[in-house]
Known about the structure:
single chain, mainly beta, Jelly Rolls, 2 domains, seven-stranded antiparallel beta sheet, six-stranded antiparallel beta sheet, 42 strands, elongated, disordered C terminus
Amino acid sequence: MLLAGVDYEPINSSSAFVRMTSNRSVGSGDEANFGGSNDQFKISDITNLETSLQFERVGTGNVDATIDWEIIEYTGRVGGDNEFIVRHVEDLTFVNGDDIQQSSSVVTNIENDNDVVVFLGGANQTGAPGRTEPCTLAVTSWDSSSQRAFVDKYQESLTSGRGSELQIMVVEFTGKNWKVQRIPEHTFSSRDEESISIPVAISSTSSAFIHPQYRYDAKDGVGSDQNKNLTAKVYLKDVNTIEAKVTGSQAGTQGSGSVAVWLIENTQKHGQKMNVTHYSGFRDRNLSTNPDIFSSSLQSTVNIDTTSIMGESAAREISNSNLSDYNNLQFSIGISSSGQEVVITRGTDINGIDYTFSTVEWPTEYRSRGLSIQSDTQWFYDDFNRANQSITASSDWDENTLYLNDNGVNWFINDGTLGPTGNSQLNGFAFLNTASYQWTNDQLSEVVYSNIKTFDYAGPAVRLNFGPGHESGSGYVLFHDGLVDSGRRIRRMDNGSLASGGSDGNFSIAAGDKVRLEAVGTTISCYVNGNLAVSWTESTYESGSVGVFYRKENTATTRFDNFYAQNIVSGQTGKPFKIS
């Protein structure tokens, strides 16, 4: 038994669910019996996740088997743009092999039926233990009229008496950034790869993942022992299409398989967006390895605390003549502690397999320290990842140049960063167009310093105000120099000139630091990497736009990256997703 607070972080059961990351939701299978399995796992007492977590298996229990699992928890603010709520969890029991449909109890608190996903968490067969039978293969659906989740599985007349237990989680993706689709169940007519159309095209495959489910459909209640072990490879091909391939000796003759796919998309466009990377591979058979354990490198290192596995599926190598499939078509998968690869475990390797999976780096709604951002609050983000170019007046950015010694600041994007060009001493701003963006009095401006040059006084700016021709500027700026302590302070700009005084200084900033300037009431604050560096009470300017400031007295090489601006309101701090 795994204990909350000891073996995994304490969770809130209304915002967290657990699932085994396995293409059949049962683990790797028996790692000793060649070509067969006595071991399938279920999640025991799935309703008790806040206290403990336990896995149970059917079979002899005297052989090794591997399970990978994850807890996915939303820890952001209530009503957040990326919120999901776990509405219901339940363990459904299928009495015998002819019991092919079960429904959950009534779920009473669904707000929008179109936002519901019914996840499978784990499954095991009951009755006489044996090889991994398809009695554990099932598809889920949501019925809006009865407010119940339904589970349909294989009819196993050849081995009646074997029932199964399956765990389901009814999750409602309530945040406005989520879009959910259940792709209509597709029945295969052959062993060839078949296309399934997505009813509403997604915006990008990198912002969506699938939860595929599979079952075998017997024809007239009869299916061959080989055919009932059909399995399917399912993957997101493009924004319009899901591809699926079934394998079995007699697909379409003595029955066939069908696949149901839940498609979950996140539409957040800025900040730490959801990033989904899809993988596929082939593992050849060896006929000698029990278990079969191998790794697959990821395209980039992921944070294992905020990344999960989705979309696990596998199909047998079509050319393989050995049709005693059983557990060698199932695998368990987990991300390594380094975040650089996944480790895949199969009970045996009697068959080669085509496999797929996806890594899901969950989105994080932007959070200001000690503040909560409302979902309808104005915000702006620019990572400057585009071709080298000058910044000119546009719907997003306006450029204002204040002349000193007849030389002005010209803002320029170079190698994905923002900075000025020009000569001699000058003050300059780049600010967001107030015609396109409506900023409240309380606001923030944030940059990441990609490079800091001595005597290049530069930083974020708030409550900026300009004359009709942008000939002068007023507001609050972070006046930071890479060398002189007296330069590290918040200053007030009055009609193009820096006012005397300012906040206390003596705080350091280095290249790579994330620096935020906030204006809340009469308090102007600076945070470095989320930690308060200095606050200043000043009441001259109550409103204005957000942007960045530059004063050059040396080579203009201080540069910014990842500019972020947002309105802020009082509230509670939010936290990102975490994966156990």
